[in-house]
Amino acid sequence: MPPGASPEAGDSPGPKLFHWASAAALGGFLLGYHSGVLAGALLWIRDDFQLSSLEQGVLVSLLPLGAMVGSIAAGPIADALGRRTALILDAVLLLVAAGVAALAPSYAVLLIGRGLAGLGVGAASSVVPVYLSELAPPGVRGRLITVHQLQITVGILVAYFVDLVFAGSESWRALFAIGLLPAAALLVGMLRSPETPAWLDARGSTDLAREVIRQIADEDETDRLLEDIRRTRELQQRQVGPVELARRARPALVIGVALAALQQFAGVNAIIYYAPAVMERTELSASASILSSVVIGAINVAATVVSFRLVDRMGRRPLLLASLTGMTVSLVALGAASELSLGRAGSWLALVSILVYIAAFAIGLGPLFWVLVAEIFPADTRAAGTGVSTAANWLSTFVVGLAFLPLVGAIGQGPTFWIFAAVCVVALGFVIRLVPETKGRSFAEIDAEVRRRWKRHAKPRAA
Ligand code: BGC
Questions:
Q1: CA 113 – CA 103 distance, rounded (Å)
Q2: Residue of the nearest CA to atom 7 in ligand 1?
Q3: pLDDT at residue 238, as a whole number
Q4: What's the 268 CA to ligand 1 centre distance in angstroms?
Q5: What is the pLDDT of residue 215?
Q6: Which of 29, 33, 149 to mutate to test the pocket of ligand 1 (most atoms within 8 A of CB)?
Q7: Which of 91, 334, 338, 381 could serve as 353's disulfide partner, Cβ 3.0–4.6 Å?
Q8: Is residue 176 a contact partner of residue 162, using CB atoms and an 8 Å limit?
Q9: 150 ligand 1 Cβ < 6 A
Q10: Ligand 1: which atom is nearest the Cα of residue 269?
Q11: Residue 366 Cα, ligand 1 centroid: separation in angstroms?
């Protein structure tokens, strides 16, 4: 081990850090759970409240819409009150949201519950990555933030399971009530976790910042990490709003927003949502196709675990490039399976394509959007930058969710998947040119690399 390195701050997260990270990443679990749970619950809610398809659509899209607002609002709150306090308040909001939805006497009240849940998961989706990135020494940062994505995928999988378990009783209220548990766990977990050293130090609480780092690093490493925090902050002195953000951190903002849009317009949620329908055409039995979402959910989790193991070893760029290549190929194949009359072989091709697509997404673009967005912004623009990028992600989720079915109706399923494939190709070009390798680098080094690439590839054409 090199002098100054400590076991905790070196290449393994260490139990304490992992504990804090897991607590905060429950925000990701809640995101996954609330996104996944409606898939099953919707049918029973529709019957209970006699909902029209428009009313169902409004109910579904309220989560990403609320989340968009929540992710924007959370940035300034996390800057003013601290990342930890923001997450504690968020946990309370998510408890209220789950309670309101579970007890909703009417459609209108249910809408309020889902809107609040949207605000809560949106806020978590922008604050959790910031919290994790500021807590983690550079050597384990990728893995720590990947814990967030891992929890999202576990949340989706658990929601699918719970949907299956309650399919007999059709009790949608129980599905929402179960959401109380992770929200309570987030609350308790954050009450026992510290504020981030970066935020504490920026507020002049250097001793407290040092105390937090000392719990995960030795004396020398603590000095080095504090120094890195300062160096990053010295680049710019104060916290900024959205307008200043666009002026001062434009390269990072372009990367964050573009990756957000590319992640969603590559079709992941369309696939996750509509996979059972496509699977049904693979001539599997009805019960097998009900289980298909669980299989997809499980592969999503498994591939995210693989990504977790690779992200700090292989680096972000190789994983992203492999991921996008796999997604492109599988989407082209999926489109072909939908368009060509291949009979049973076409059905199996569709099935394999979907599984490869999800694995490819989960190994790279899925987690790495969240990793990079937490890494590329300079300290004083980090919370605002992460908030805006996350809001762009939610807006894109909302748009794709609304547009997918009409698009399939207008141009057919095959060409729709090919459009997603084309988005992946654009994303490949974008990553090659503008996305920095952040593995093992300090925030100051990352900032310099972001600007170097921007000057080389974007500036000349903009001028
Ligand atoms: C995306 C979500 C998606 C999830 C699937 C996340 O990275 O942001 O929109 O549902 O991955 O695992």
A1: 9
A2: 366
A3: 55
A4: 7
A5: 86
A6: 149
A7: 334
A8: no
A9: no
A10: 10
A11: 6
64 lines ligand 1 (CB under 6 A): no
The residue type found at 270 is: A
Which pLDDT value is given to residue 205? 87
Phi, psi of 51 (to 5 degrees): -85, 140
Residue 306 Cα to ligand 1 middle (Å): 16
Q: Identify each DSSP E strand in 88-130 by its residue range.
A: none
Other beta carbons within 10 angstroms of residue 341's beta carbon come to: 5
**Ligand 1 pocket check for 152: Cβ under 6 Å:** yes
Q: Note the pLDDT of residue 463.
A: 44
* pLDDT for the residue numbered 233: 66
pLDDT along the chain (463 residues), means of 10: 35 76 94 85 85 81 92 89 96 98 96 96 91 83 84 92 80 94 97 93 87 84 82 60 75 96 94 64 55 86 92 93 98 90 77 93 95 87 84 92 83 93 98 94 90 83 49
pLDDT of residue 76: 86
- Residue of the CA atom closest to atom 3 of ligand 1: 269
CA distance 423 to 403: 15
To the nearest 10°, report the CA torsion of 421, 423, 425, 431. Answer: -140
CA of 148 to the centre of ligand 1 (A): 11
The two structure tokens encoding residue 161: 């399971």
Give residue 202 CA to ligand 1 midpoint distance, Å.
32
Ligand 1: does its nearest atom lie under 6 Å from the Cβ of 271? no
d(CA 388, CA 34): 21
Alpha-carbon separation of residue 137 from 68, 222, 309, 447 (angstroms): 29, 10, 16, 16
Residue 134 CA, ligand 1 centroid: distance in Å:
22
CA distances from 138 to 51, 106, 439, 441, 446 (A): 50, 49, 8, 6, 11
Helices and strands of the chain, counted as H and E runs? 22, 0
Q: What is the pTM of this model?
A: 0.83
Of all protein residues, the one whose alpha carbon is nearest to atom 1 of ligand 1 is 366
- How many CB atoms within 10 Å of residue 285? 9
**CA 393 / ligand 1 centre spacing (Å):** 9
Find tokens 């919707």 and name the residue: 42
Say yes or no: CB of residue 71 within 6 Å of ligand 1.
no
Residue 66, pLDDT score: 95
DSSP state of 139: G
Residue 236: its pLDDT value, please? 47
Distance between CA atoms of residues 77 and 386, nearest Å: 13
